[in-house]
## 1
Amino acid sequence: MQIGELAQRFGVAPSKIRFLEAEGLVRPARRTRTGYREYDESSAEALAMILQAQSLGFTLDEIKGALAESRTNGLRHDYLIGQITQKLTELDRHIAQVQELRGRLICARNELKTRMKNSINCAGKTPTLPSGTSKLRAPRQPNRRSAS
């Protein structure tokens, strides 16, 4: 099958297949006399595996490593399980970071809501600042001396 047929079969652009070929991940079985790429089922299977790995969050470098490992030692399920476990660990770490950020954002929102609520007194007037304080000022910029 030609590149257009393969691309249509997997719902990707032919340029993606050309890119994966340039990266050494997909190889056409042969080229016709006119220079067209011809792909066989093994190319299609490789493309399917690459697309699935990408959909699971694996980078092209990680996919290259897995393919090199399978070329050297055959398809080892323990290697693949280890790679998936490592990706799950990374994902868990990312989830924890995002949850911590979410908590900080909720806290900041609640503090701002409280400040807004407390800035207007019961009469609907904005409270005055205590004596001895001035209006808010922009922070001062540090002196920047030129290196002469």
## 2
Amino acid sequence: MKSKINPSKVYSLLKQIPRGRVTTYKGLAQALHTKAYRAIGQILKKNPDAPAVPCHRVIRSDGTIGGYMGGESSVSCTKKKKILMGEGIEFDENKVKNFKKVFFQSGSEPAPGIHSMPLIGLRLCQEKWEEHI
């Protein structure tokens, strides 16, 4: 039986990605304790609150742009790239420059007292809060 990923949890995590940083479909999936990377993409494709929920900050693990707004056409990818460039992300063709530096799950700057991987740390905090609600 497949486990179902709650879209609101994906969107909640996604809102934590700061401007000028990116994560990956895999990074979001790992934060939710799943390997359903493609399911994350399908959820983002249906994002009802873009750009408040910044799905444009999710790219492929190889640093390439990936899809945007449900498509991978040159028009949608160009739009995604333009938004990211406006947030300070630099590109070499269609690949993010300094990918490790702007990747928001590298563990390079965890908040004090939070797991060394920011998204996982945020997810663990959410789970603790849910226990108290």
